[in-house]
Write a structure and sequence with these properties.
two-stranded antiparallel ribbon; 8 strands; alpha+beta; globular; 202 residues
Amino acid sequence: RSPSSTSGGRRPVRAVTGSGVRPSSVGHRPCSTSTTRLRSAGLQDPHELEYRGREAGRRAQIETVQTFLDVPIDHMAEVSLAGFYYLARALGGIEVCVNNATHDPMSGANLVAGHQVLDAAQALAFVRHRHGLKNGDLDRTRRQQAFIAAVTYKLRTQGAASDPAILSGLMDVAKQNMVLDEGMDMFDFGLRASGLTGGRMT
């Protein structure tokens, strides 16, 4: 969720993050329905079907999140799982605090408890981990929020945002692993993301 104008100025940036809304949990409409409708309308090109079906899925997911959380969604930024890996690599590691030691062969998350700096491979395992966590996907979403908060903290406090080499690497990662809606470009997203903290994510 992005800021919008109010009588007192611009409200603080707040983000709603999710680890893929599962149809069985919130009644998300299956993307196959959109693809079937497109075929019925005469569209047969597989690449166009894939693109339009994917966009329809994103729109449906935004509608689902808005309805489920009763929170307006002004803009959408989608990060692939590979994006977490390349973000951590571009920043030279990400510092997180793990409440409990984890050993999960499914995700590869083998982490000790406490504060630690994760390399790219460990960061990817950290945000993928859900098996064995008390709340499953919800806990995985919390881990992804912690990762994003750690990225924005490092950009704000450790000079990464003023390092041309790091910024160039981050832009390359964003171009290859992020999808933004039509109302926002990479520069705008960077300005908005820099205002995020763990307490401003839902």
